[in-house]
Design a protein that fits this description.
Length: 323
Amino acid sequence: MHMRLSTLMAGASIFALFTSGCADNTIRALPNRAPVASALVDSGDENTADQRLGYVIQGGSATLDGSLSDDVDDPGQPALLAFQWSFDSIPDDSGFVDGEGNIDSSALVVPEDDPDTDDVNESAFPTFTPDTLGTYRVQLIVIDDDGEPSTPSIAVVQAVPPSDLSVHLEWADNRADLDLHLIGPDGSYFGDGDCFSWEPNPEWGESGLATDNPELTGDADGEGSSPYREQINLEEPPEGDYEVWVHYYSDHSVELGGPAVPATAEVEVRVFDSVLSGSELESDPLLAGDVWKVGVLSWPERSFAPLNQASDHASEGGPAYNE
């Protein structure tokens, strides 16, 4: 009897231990957590991921991307967030300031939210056009539907001068030897300021500075397979107007006693490897000695004005050669 009573008492103690504190059946909600902001710079390339640091060339527009921001209590629903964009800092000589000298974020163009869409709010993608060269730090704060703000996220946009100019020539017949010419401001055909096969890397701009000197990469002369290409690169062009010409330097068929071979040239001008509007041109058939004046490039405006004019080497004052 004593053993049974002890066993019962021990069981009662264990039951009391496991049931103590369970009388309150109230369900308590977890506290709301702050959302997470993610400010990025749109790369403009669907094959390249957006980054926290991005670049825009002078006069261009930068697009920001906050679509990866998230509400950790309701993940995968960025459309429910409110986006607040502002400049954290701007270049010293920027005009994005108010009458009291404080930073004015009104240059950030934020699209209106669309409350009827299930997609990411359009306000996740503001744009702005830098008014001067330098570094712009853009801040994003997102607010969830409980009014809880995130900590700020910063994206950095670097406004840089236009650069990476390249001029491309292409033709199909290996019997034709064409030459690409980039004639700089105040330059002359076959003279000073002309980058071509005879002067593939002339000294332009500031003395001793390599980045403002053009360079001809390759001098195609019927070698390899079609199409045949020449390219002139100029990393930091000095300000001014540049003329793009093509000269039919030599007809190898005629040199060997054969018939003349007409050749058609194709030219395009690129900046940051994007083709400039109006620069994709094709010549009429050219014969040896012909010169095709393709067009004029203005820098730093990065505008191309097609000329598409026919001339010839002798009329342009070119020297005698192949004699």
